Amino acid sequence: MVWRMKKKMIVWSLVICLLLSGYGNILVGAEERAKAPTELYARSAVLMDADSGRVLFGKEENELRPMASTTKIMTCILALENQEEGQVVTASAYAAGRPKVKLGVKDQEQFYLKDLLYSLMLESHNDSAVVIAEGISGTVEEFAKLMNQKAEELGCHDTHFVTPNGLDDSDEDGIHSTTARDLATIMRYCIMQSPKREEFLEITRTKNYQFSDVEGSRRFSCVNHNAFLDMMEGALTGKTGFTSDAGYCYVGALERDGRTFIVALLACGWPNNKSYKWKDTRKLMEYGIANYQYRDVWEDVALPEVKVKNGVEEKMPYETELLVPVQVEGKDEISLLLRADEGVQVKTELKDSLRAPVHEGDVVGSVRYFLEGEEIASYQVVTKKDVRERDMNWALLWITKLALL
Predict the structure, then answer these.
(1) Any stretches that span the bilayer, and where are they (predicted)?
(2) C-alpha distances in angstroms, 144 versus 75, 140, 162, 243, 322?
(3) Does the annotation count 69 as an active-site position?
(4) Is 7 part of the annotated catalytic residue set?
C-alpha cells in the first residue's frame, strides 16, 4: 500500500514537472517572438507594414545591393499597366540569346504578352522579361527608363534599373541595384496601390500555367517556384532571385487578421544555402504577426476658443474682443499597426488671435500626429462660426437702431 502511494506521488511529480517545463517553453517561445530578430542570414532585410509603408524592422535596409530576379516584380507591374488588350509581342534575336533561366524563345517567334507574364513570374525566365520589355517600350533601354521613372515616383531614390530580368549589369548611371527598403516599397505598390494589383496577385499566386506561341506550334508549361506560398497561412505573393553578385534574394507578402506584412531580403546567402531566405522570411513574418496589432491612436484634443479682434456680436455690441470656438476637421479615428510599447505624439498648433471678419471653416491651426519623429497624420483646426467685422457699415446700422429705440 505504501509503495503504491509512493508510486503515484512519483508519477504525479513527473507529470507536474513536464507540464511546468512545457509552460516554461511556451513562455520562452513567446518572449523570443517578441524580440526583434537579431540573427538573420540576409545582409539586408526589411519587414514593412504594407498599409502604411512603415518599416517595422530593418537591417542595413538602405544599403545598395544587386537584387537579381526580384527585379521582375517591377517588370510585371509595368507590363500590366501599359499593355494593350490582347497584345502580341515578338521575340528578338537579343531576347532569344539571354542566358538561363529561360523559356527558350526563338527569334521572331510571337506570343501573347499576358502569357509571358506567367513565364516571367512563375519560372523567372530571363528571355521572357526581355520580350516583354521590348514589347512595351521598343528596347530594353527604353523600358529601363520606364522602370526608373516609376521607382522615382514611388520614392525609391536609391534604386537603379538596367535590365528587366535582374541579371547583373551596369550603365553610365550605375549598377543594377536597390535597397531592401526600396524593394519592399515596390512590392507594396504592386499589391496595395497599383490599379493592376489584383491581376498581379492572380499571376503570382498561380501554381501552374500552360500556353503556346501565337501560331500554336509550340506549347509551354510553367510551375510556380515560390515555396513561401505554401509555407505560411495567409501568404499572398513573392518573387525569388539569384545571381552570383546578388546572392539569394526574396521579396514576399503575407496577410493575417487584417494585417499585411512585406519582407524583402538581399544577399541572403550563396550556394549551397538556398533555404536561408525561407528561414529569414518566416522569422520576420512571425515577428510581425506576434508583435504588431492595429490600435486607434486618435486623441480628442481640448482646444481653447480663439480671440477675435475688432469683431462684433449682436448680443454684446460693446465687446471689442470676442472668442470664437474651433474644432478639428476630419475623421475621429487613426488606426495604426503598432507594438505594445509604441505610441504617438500629438502636437497642436493654434493661432493666438484672429482679426474680423471671421468665416465658419477658416483654418486657424492644426493637430499633427507623429510616430518615431515622423508625421503620420495632420488635421486642420477650423472656426465653428462667423464673426462680423466692426466696420463703418455696422456702426451706422447700430446708430440707426439706437435712434429708432
Answers:
(1) none
(2) 9, 6, 6, 19, 62
(3) yes
(4) no
Active-site position among 69, 92, 119, 177: 69
In this structure, are 323 and 276 located in the same domain? no
Phi, psi of 215, deg, nearest 5: -75, -15
Q: What is the rounded CA–CA span in Å between residue 172 and residue 365?
A: 48
* 287 lies in the same domain as 349: no
The string of pLDDT tens digits covering residues 26-42 is 444 445 446 788 899 99
* Active-site residue, from 44, 59, 72, 119: 72
The 8-class DSSP code of residue 305 comes to P
pLDDT band at residue 6 under the 50/70/90 scheme: low
Q: Using the predicted structure, report yes or no on whether residue 392 has a pLDDT greater than 60.
A: yes
End-to-end CA distance of the chain: 113
The whole-number pLDDT of residue 388 equals 85
Strands 219-223 and 321-324: unpaired
Q: What is d(CA 355, CA 389) in angstroms, rounded to the nearest whole number?
A: 8
Q: What is this structure's pTM?
A: 0.85
Q: Is 72 a catalytic residue?
A: yes
What DSSP string runs through 123-159?
I--HHHHHHHHHHHHSSHHHHHHHHHHHHHHTT-TT-
Q: Which residue has the higher pLDDT, 51 or 390?
A: 51
Note whether residue 154 is domain-resident.
yes
Whether 196 has a binding-site annotation, put simply, is: no
Q: What mean pLDDT comes out for the span 274-287?
A: 97
Any domain includes 371: yes
| Residue 358: strand pairing partners | 387
Last residue of a domain, one of 233, 258, 291: 291
When pLDDT is averaged across residues 256-284 and rounded to a whole number, the result is: 97
Q: Which of 131, 101, 99, 100 is nearest to 115 (CA)?
A: 131
Whether the per-residue pLDDT at 197 is higher than 60: the answer is yes
Report the alpha-carbon distance of residue 201 to residue 183 in Å, rounded. 17
Q: Is residue 192 part of a domain?
A: yes
The single residue of 44, 92, 119, 124 carrying the catalytic annotation is 124
Please give the full DSSP string across 79-106, using - where no structure is assigned.
Answer: HHHHPPTT-EEE--HHHHTPPSS-----
Share of the chain above pLDDT 70, in %: 86
Could you tell me the residue range of the domain that residue 383 belongs to?
306-404
Task: Look at residues 101, 91, 178 and name the one whose alpha carbon lies nearest to residue 140.
Answer: 91
